Every structure is written in C-alpha cells, then in structure tokens.
Amino acid sequence: MFELIGIPPQALFGQMLLGLINGAFYAVLSLGLALIFGLLNVINFTHGAQYMLGAYVAWLLLNFLGINYWLALILAPVVVGAFGILLERLMLRKLYHLDHLYGLLLTFGLALIIEGVFRNLYGISGQSYPVPPVLTGGYNLGFMFLPLYRGWVVFFSLVVCLGTWLVIEKTKLGSYLRAGTENPTLVQAFGINVPRMITLTYGFGVGLAALAGVLAAPIYQVKPTMGADMIIVVFAVVVIGGMGSIMGSVVTGFMLGLLEGLTKVFYPEASNTVIFVVMAVVLLIKPAGLFGKAS
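Structure (tokenized):
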C-alpha cells in the first residue's frame, strides 16, 4: 500500500512517532493551560516560560547537584510549581475579577521577563541534557525503529493526562475545584478554603508545564526560547479542544501532533501551519471548540 503512494513505511511510521511525541508535549502543556483557565479564568501566557523553567531546573540539578533525571521529574515540577504559587499570590490573585485581557497582558509580560533573564544568563545557544541510561537505545519493530526514551515520553504523558482528568472529573477534590470557581461563597460555607485551593490549582497547572519541560530536555536542547517556540501552538490546541476542557486538550493535543507528523510526510510545506488552519476551520464551525460548551 505504501509503495502505491511512493512513501517508505519506515518514513511514514517514523513521522507518526515524531507526531505522537510532539502531541504528548502539546497534550501535557495544553492540559495545564486548560486547567488554569477552566478553574481560575486566567489565560496563562507564562506557561511557555514555565515549561522552559522545568527544563532548566532539571539541567541545573544535574550539572550542579548531580541529581539525575528521575528525581528531576519530581523536583522540577515542585520547584517551578512553588514559583507559580508565588506569582499567583503576589500578582494574579488581584486580577481574578477583572477582564481576561488583564491576566493575559500580565502573564505575557512575565514570560518576556523570565525568558530575558535566562537569555542574559545562558545566551541563546542550547544546553544538552542526556537521556537516562535505562532508556537509551530502542527496539526494531520491523516496520520502524522505536527509541526507548521517545516511547517512554508518549506513555508517561498519557498516564499524566488521564490521571489528571480522573482527579478533576471523578473525585470529590475535583468537584470542590469546579464548584469553587462557580460559587466560591457556597463552597467556603462548607469549610473549604477556596483561595488556598485556587492557589494550589495554579501551582499544579504550572507544575505540569515544568514536567513537560523535563520530559523535553533530553529530546530538544534546553534553551531560553524553547517555551516561546511551543506556546503559540499549544494555545491553538487549547482553542481547538475548547477553552477549559480538560479532555478536549488531551485528545486534541495528541490528534494534532499526529496530524502535524503526517503532514510532514505528504505535504511538508504545510506542516508549520496545518494546526492553525484546523483552528480557523473549527472556530468557523464550532466557536466553542470541539469539546467546549457554548457560553
């Protein structure tokens, strides 16, 4: 079948794997964005910078403290999530009752400041981060070669995304979070500290961005612009899936990653724009997004 369209199967499946890897990062990042917007009504443009921070924290932990990849998967999201909590307490909390534009402008400015600081510290050239030894090499599946680390990224991203969705949608904690954004006064009457819950939710969403940064570090170079290169695409994914839709972000992230990978096989010139074309079509047909609900 592949010979009929003149494409070697190894090339096709290889691009599909690359698409799945990109989709994994799109899904985890857009999940954090959707969580913050859906529960806090904040358009967090700092998300790309926080993704970059996660990669840099992992790199710094390895090079200055000798802390390996597996511990960095835990420590980097905690460190960057704590930084996000500090931002929420000092700045974002004052904007919750204002128009979304104020939060967008503030977070955009913070993203520029964070990226500028790391540009001054480390320049624009990338830093390498080694693949953990247990995940080096790969398997020959016959129709393609599967690098172990890339397979791990796709699997682990799926677990994180589905686990987060289950917590938000199927647990009592998730119901408190959703109720706290819709009627905080009523939830506080039941003894729930809503401001603290919102702060921790923002920290968790930021931690997801940092986690994606740690996963990306061995694949892409760790550099100050890595978040800026990703955030525009991730916002498009969130819009297509539906602003605030947790499952929409996950499903759309993986689907669009695959679509991007396939486009590189059949029509490479359109691979950088296909996601934005899809976004335009979806917004024309369903302005709330594929999984979103109309206001």
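The first strand starts at residue 138 and ends at 140. The chain has eleven helices and two strands.
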